[in-house]
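User: Could you write out the 3D structure of this protein bound to MRU? I've included everything you need below.
Assistant: Certainly. Input first, then the structure.
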Amino acid sequence: MPEDDDLKVRPVRWQDGLVLIDQTRLPGELRHVRIEDVDALIEAIRSLAVRGAPALGVAGAYGVAVALRQGAREGWDGGRVLEAVERIRHARPTAVNLARGTDRAAARLADGVDAVLEEAAAVAREDVAANRRLSELGADWLLARIGHDRPLRLVTHCNAGALATAGWGTALGVVRELHRRGRVELVYVDETRPLLQGARLTAWELEQEGIAHLVQADSAAPSTILYQGVDAAVVGADRVAANGDTANKIGTLGVALACARAGVPFMVAAPTTTVDAATPDGSAIHIELRDPDEVAGFGAARTAPAGSAGFNPAFDVTPGTLVDALATELGVAEVSRGELPGQLWSGSL
Ligand code: MRU
């Protein structure tokens, strides 16, 4: 697509078949993997080879084509294809984009594989366009709110960049836009235990972009926000409920609480595809519980005693009352002041 020509990172693409960047290998190795069947896609999603809400939406959409092609090869009937699509849809529970992207492409199943691929490409294209727009609107809002003319000191958590989307980024899209305007001094990157999406992926992206950054332990974030002159925190989202409660990577809530205490803006940057009007509030969001061993060790090495079990929720929910700004492609909702995501669609913001 012409408008996507300038994308340097494309985590999910179709090139005679589904090709993913294997994000588990970064930053050491930029390796692409070809996904030949549904089981391989589900494993890639669960192992976080592909991850981040909008990227999961694109992977789910292309996954429908993977299922159709596998079905044709192996003589599946329609029911078996639908069953495979359902498995993809539910491979991870928290990011609403996975179900949304899969459903969009699945709605074209009856029209054949070309129609499914067309729909999946549209999911990707629209995500890039939405991310570009919300990045501009988010940057405008932050600069207006912060008020001073100096470059900003920012905190981000997890990875909400090109790797987590169709190739532009939400929270890192805002950071990139601020950088383009010469308004970023430094980004504090939370390492994001236990799988290190911040230290491995966000730091890699910022390095590629030449944006000054420091990687810090997640537990350093509140202190940094209170005592290191931080101007704002910008994070992504996996699902935003109708009341603005926001599920994002575990540890986001601590960032939001620290921002509230410090009186600095806490921004969630997410396309409207991540807003789920059918989920009334955060209590209805299914939080993925991952393998306890991911937190009972560091990388391949076990650090906790053999008899100690781990507790490993992959996401937390930040109450909407702590979300100063929800930056979407339709506008910015000041949720903590009572503006609801639904008002973005009604145009009443
Ligand atoms: O477990 P992950 O790496 O898929 O979690 C990703 C996040 O929490 C991101 O912040 C979120 O999906 C937004 S991506 C634009």
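The chain has a mean pLDDT of 97.
User: Perfect, thank you.
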